[in-house]
# Entry
Amino acid sequence: MVMKPKTFLLLLVISIFTLPCAIFAQSAVSHLPDTSKMTTYFLVLLKTGQNRTQDSLSAARIQDGHMSHIKQMSLDKKLVLAGPFIDNTALRGIFVLHVDSIEEATSLTQQDPAVSSGRLVAEIHPWYGPVELQNIEWY
# Structure
C-alpha cells in the first residue's frame, strides 16, 4: 500500500504534536509522589488583622485563648506545627494542619480567638508534604 503525500504529511503532523503529549503524560504519572511518603496538609499563614484596638487586658486574653486553641489542636492531632514569625512583618505566624479538608482547616482556624476577634486573619493553602512531618515530636 502506497500512502498519498497528503495522508503521510497529516500523519507526520499528528505524530509530531501527539508524541510529546504522550511522553509527558507518561512521565507525569511516573513522577507522582508516593502517597505512603507524601500527604496533604493545610498551610495557614496568620497575618495582622484589621481589629487591633483591644486594650492590653483584652489583647492578653485573646492571646491566651489563641495559645489554648493551638494546644487543643495539637492534642487532637490536627496541628502538626505552629509558631510565630519573628521578622516584624504583617505575617504573624504559621499553622500546618493535618485535617481532611480545607473546610475543616477553615473551621479550626476560625475557632481561634485571635482570628475570630479580627486580631489575625488567616490565609489557607493546601500543601503536599512528607507523611513523617506529622510524626515528629517537637518538644
Notes: The chain has two domains: 1-32, 38-135.
